[in-house]
């Protein structure tokens, strides 16, 4: 199937390389072009994300059959926007492959489409709530530390601040919230057990502040 890959990360410290590699290994798709951008999917609307818009224009112009993403949150964390985009793609006859769910929207029966849309709605809402909750906890923690006269930046001798560390591992945080086991998260995120432990510990510290 003729396809394009769309990848996105939220911070400049992150890379889309893993997403691209995962999508290129999927059988049955011939990726014509990869579109990648570094921009928040929570604070920016789909219209403000230029690379996403360029990808949508390219797909229609070149008669691409499918758009590939590593997970639904790469498209956006706004449930309404995401569902509207999926609906527009369906009307245009363009499929959407979601790697972590292993499903291709638009290539199934009507019954499957209804079930898959339900999954997408739930996952999108979880991603949005997770992002909002994490943002609130980090801001609240920073505010409390400032009130106590404590440093909110990098500790002396540390490699990076806690906020920066958590920002690099949002995928691990998501799967922890979903209740996935450590072995599952290792496979899904291609990380080590120690990294998962560190992320969980950092989240616990933020929650305590």
Automatic annotation (TrEMBL):
**Origin: domain of life:** Bacteria
Q: Sorted alphabetically, which InterPro entries does this protein's record hold?
A: Resolv_N, Resolvase-like_N_sf, SSR_resolvase
Residues of the Resolvase/invertase-type recombinase catalytic domain:
2-149
Q: Which Pfam families match?
A: Resolvase (PF00239)
| Matching PANTHER family | DNA-INVERTASE FROM LAMBDOID PROPHAGE, SITE-SPECIFIC RECOMBINASE RESOLVASE FAMILY
Could you tell me what this protein is called? Recombinase family protein
**Taxonomic source organism:** Cyclobacterium jeungdonense
